[in-house]
What we know:
It contains 13 helices and 14 strands. By secondary structure, the chain is an alpha/beta fold. The strands form 4 sheets. It has a 5-stranded parallel sheet, sandwiched between helices. Strands 6-7-8-9 form a 4-stranded antiparallel sheet. Strands 13-12-14 form a 3-stranded mixed sheet, covered by helices on one side. The chain is globular. The two termini are 31 Å apart. It binds 5'-O-(N-(L-cysteinyl)-sulfamoyl)adenosine and zinc ion.
Amino acid sequence: MRSWPASEVPHLPDAGLPAAAWPLRLHDTGTGTARPAGPAGSGGTARMYVCGITPYDATHLGHANTYLAFDLVNRVWRDAGHRVHYVQNATDVDDPLLERARETGEDWRALADREIQLFRDDMTALRILPPDRYIGAVESIPLIIEMIEKLRGRNAAYEVGGDVYFPVAADPDFGQVSRLTREEMAPLFAERGGDPDRAGKRDPLDALLWSARRPGEPAWDSPFGEGRPGWHVECSAISIEHLGMAFDVEGGGSDLAFPHHEMGASHAQVATGERPHARAYVHAGMVGLDGEKMSKSRGNLVFVSKLREAGTDPMAIRLALLAHHYRSDWEWTPDRLAEAEARLERWRAAASRASGPPAAPVAEAVRSHLADDLDAPAALKAVDAWAAADGTDATAPSQVKALTDALLGIAL
Ligand code: 5CA
Ligand code: ZN
């Protein structure tokens, strides 16, 4: 599938110490600790998989917040001199998408195409760097079938009424991504697309790998009958095909830790006999509105495209999101946008001055804060302090402009 255009990323000069002096550390859900993420030193290749949208009701501010967090990961790695191999999927066939198409009478493919294009346009406007490979579930069906075949070959798949399930008992490490107890898993599984009460399953938590053809739904041929792929096996198959096992970061919002990333890791580990699936599982917090998580099912969405249509500068949207730590849950209110607009104006005025305080200390501060589990709010404050102070360095304004562009994605 087509990705979206990349904005230019300026190369920053080393300021005293090389950028690689601040290696990125990220909070890993799998261990509950902040750990080094990506290759050591400089000049390696970092590998990242970020779960993409299910294309309907794109792009709300919760989505934007999550993709922005991983855009920072991408930018910090590049600044440290690494190449980044970044893969993202689009869940262009799944229950909620088909349900929405049924409700509105639209063809599911037309709905997916339109929403994916809207997502691309929003990502471009927000200057979120594109994945190198942007891959749909539909185009990956042969790959997914191959993966289910591998699981069947390892006795890690069974049928219930034509549907194919993955027995979680097949993975001795099941539970190591989310670190939840079975009691904690049960309600989340039911809430997030699972079917704990399906009669005939060996374990209520067993996950659907292949859903047998249902009337009026799209279906593809497979050795285990006509049907369509389950959700977790989609990301599992796409990630290991394009990145291999033990890639550096698997990312998404915190609602994906369980069951999605947990199941995906188990599928991958059992199918390949290798572990881990990813070295770190990194999760962004949830953005809410009026006391509830922003979600398609609740319908309390603020869309990036609507804000853009109303004339909001995408850089102000980006700054409003960056003002919160990526792991925190927070509420969107119109004041946040007004604050970000004022900040953007201050930064732009400071960057267009003839001179300012030297850029090296602010570059150091921004690099060290971002390397520390993406502390963007602290990085913004460092730029605020530079913008508020006077100085005589005539090269500083253009250097700070390059800094906010390269590391924060903010074009001044
Ligand atoms: N297609 C699957 C992943 S394979 C999916 O979850 N799609 S989604 O469209 O529902 O969500 C896309 C990404 O946005 C996921 O990482 C999800 O965790 C994140 N997300 C959804 N709602 C919010 C929210 N309110 N705040 C922050 N992130 C959110
Ligand atoms: Zn996914």
